[in-house]
Every structure is written in structure tokens, then in C-alpha cells.
Write a structure and sequence with these properties.
The chain is α/β, with parallel strands linked by helices and 193 residues long. The protein has 5 helices and 7 strands, in the order ααβαβαββαβββ. Strands 3-2-1-4-5-7-6 form a 7-stranded mixed β-sheet. Strand 1, helix 3 and strand 2 form a beta-alpha-beta unit. Helix 3 packs parallel to helix 4. The N and C termini lie far apart (40 Å).
Length: 193
């Protein structure tokens, strides 16, 4: 992502109404039985921390990486208000793949961020028994919503390809509870024998 993209994301976060805290995705919350309550978690492109804070409240040591300074400041305030620690990393994963914090991770969540070359690296960064939670709109989403644009949408059936070498726990696509046509994937890395 170029510097002007960082500025664009900073503007978007500045323009949002932050009088009400962002709640975690209802889908992520529903996955609680599949997620560990201890260990290390990574929230990729985690924005203002709605998922990171929820994971930290569950007892995980959470690192959130995002390109936006504004989003990271909001995540820091949300964590302080919740009384949980978060490690915050300003990283431009589009321009610098090495900005991905080093694993292994017991949980990796990636919501509404698509960088196809990064996804196999996320799977490889999981600890044995680690869980990848991925959610991204598909091209069918354009039937009802102009954004995100085509470059940021999955082809139908594409999400499962990112789980190569992982056990798929949940895989679904369709018009889901938040009104978007999304692909949702939960995949687990095998535990060591």
C-alpha cells in the first residue's frame, strides 16, 4: 500500500462515528467453542480492534497489525477501556510482506482484507493445532453493494484453496447475517503427534 493509501485509511477511520464501540463479528463470537482461550492471536488488518479486544478478553495474547495510525490509536483506546493489553503493529502488508508479525500463532483472524499471496503465509504461521479464521466478500456481493470493488473480492469457492494443508472446520458462502455475500472459513493446523 502506498503512503497515499495509508492516508486514505486514516481519513476513513477519522470520518467514522466512534461514539459506539465496534462489537466483534457475531460469526466470530459464535466460533468461541473452536477457538483456544490461551496462547497467541494475530488480528490481520484488524482496524480499530473489535476482534482483537474480544480475543484478548478471552485470555489470548493478541497482536493487531494494520496500516492505519488512526485505527491503531482507536484499538489502543478500546483495549484500555476493556482493560486488556494489545500489541499494536503498524504494518503495510500490501507493500511489505515482512510486516507480518512472526508466529507461531494459536489463532489468526483475517476479516475483510484480501491479499492472496499473504494467505498461504498465514496458514504456515499457525502453531500446531492453531486456527485460521477468514472472512471475505465474494464477487456476488456486487449484486447488492458497490464496495468493496472487484479487486478485493473472492471468486466463489476460492476461500477453501487457502486452507491447503489445514483441516477445514467450517466453510460456507452465501448471503450471510451482515447482508454481504461472503466466504467464511475456519481451518485448523494439525497437532503434532
Amino acid at each position: 500500500m502506498a503512503t497515499d493509501d495509508r492516508g486514505r485509511w486514516n481519513e476513513r477511520w477519522r470520518a467514522r462515528d466512534h461514539t459506539v464501540a465496534d462489537e466483534p463479528s457475531t460469526w466470530l463470537v459464535s466460533l468461541a467453542p473452536h477457538l483456544p482461550a490461551r496462547g497467541r492471536a494475530l488480528d490481520v488488518a484488524g482496524g480499530a480492534g473489535r476482534h482483537a479486544v474480544w480475543l484478548a478478553r478471552r485470555g489470548l495474547d493478541v497482536t493487531l497489525v494494520d496500516v492505519s495510525d488512526e485505527a491503531l490509536a482507536l484499538a489502543d483506546r478500546a483495549a484500555a477501556a476493556a482493560g486488556v493489553p494489545l500489541a499494536l503493529v503498524r504494518g503495510d502488508l500490501d507493500a511489505d510482506p515482512d510486516a507480518l508479525p512472526a508466529g507461531p500463532w494459536d489463532v489468526i483472524v483475517c476479516f475483510h482484507y484480501l491479499d492472496r499471496p499473504l494467505l498461504p503465509r498465514l496458514a504456515a504461521a499457525l502453531a500446531p493445532g492453531g486456527v485460521l479464521v477468514f472472512c471475505q466478500p465474494t464477487r456476488r456481493n456486487l449484486e447488492r453493494h458497490p464496495r468493496p470493488g472487484p479487486a478485493h473480492l473472492l471468486d466463489e469457492g476460492e476461500a477453501a484453496a487457502f486452507a491447503r494443508g489445514l483441516e477445514i472446520v467450517v466453510s460456507e458462502e452465501g448471503w450471510l447475517d451482515e447482508g454481504r455475500h461472503e466466504a467464511r472459513l475456519v481451518a485448523r493446523r494439525a497437532r503434532r503427534p
